[in-house]
Amino acid sequence: MAVLLVRDDREYLLQRGETLETDLGILEVPEDAQAGEVVTTHLDEAFTVRELRGPDCFAHFERTGAPMMPRDIGLVMGHTGASGGDRVLDAGTGTGVLSAYLGRAGANVVTYERDADFAEVARENMALAGVDDRVDVRVGDITDEIDDLTEEAFDVLTLDTEDAATVVARAPDLLAKGGFVAVYSPFVEQTREIVAAAREAGLSDVESLETIQREMDFDDRGSRPSTAGVGHTGYLTFARLE
């Protein structure tokens, strides 16, 4: 698994045994590097080793597009209860941040990405996160693969694709009893289609949430939410198979 080398406002993500080359010198990350350990370059410049956590995946993964934000991932994890031993079917891998979070929680993930180059980057990201043994990144369109997946009985279905409503309609064929669907969609029109598909499929507990997060500003005048922006990212729809 990769580690972070941290110094002031600098952070470098490397695998143990890799070599870091910077203007502060060269160092080889020890194979047995431990969190909190201080390592130095050949110029005797010090870096502190930090273990990789979920937010670090978001910050340091190689990106192939806009990844799902940590606040959205938190809602997916919280509303589905995805955890160790669960089988998760995901579509729209992208950078792979959601898959990495799920894998680090102990879930076994099968994730589909249409673009072969994006899928290869996602595999490299899973290796960095130390979850390549739990996250199976496949190239393909999930709508073409559904018939081959219907005997898997997944615990959670997560989607971030334009045709999510089509997959949601088949959720009863893909999920184990009591399993959850979680769909991220950037547009309200798409969200409406997803909700309709979930209801038509007979899923229960169907709900859609808009995710908005505002930072707080604190200064000598007082305290209030930041006026920098409303912090909208997208819509999340959840449903469950009885």
What does this protein look like?
The protein starts with a strand and ends with a strand. It has two domains: 2-51, Roll (Vcp-like ATPase, Chain A, domain 2), CATH 3.10.330.20; 56-240, Rossmann fold (3-Layer(aba) Sandwich), CATH 3.40.50.150. A seven-stranded mixed beta sheet has the order 9-8-7-10-11-15-12, with helices on both faces. The protein has a four-stranded antiparallel beta sheet with strand order 2-1-6-5. The protein has helices at residues 54-60, 70-80, 97-104, 116-129, 142-149, 164-168, 171-174, 188-200, and strands at 2-7, 10-15, 19-22, 25-28, 38-40, 46-51, 87-91, 108-113, 135-139, 154-159, 175-185, 204-212, 216-219, 222-225, 232-240. The mean pLDDT is 94. The chain is α/β, with parallel strands linked by helices and 242 residues long. It contains eight helices and 15 strands.
Keyphrases for this structure?
single chain, 242 residues, alpha/beta, Vcp-like ATPase, Chain A, domain 2, Rossmann fold, 7-stranded mixed beta sheet, 4-stranded antiparallel beta sheet, globular, Methyltransferase domain-containing protein, tRNA_MeTrfase_Gcd14
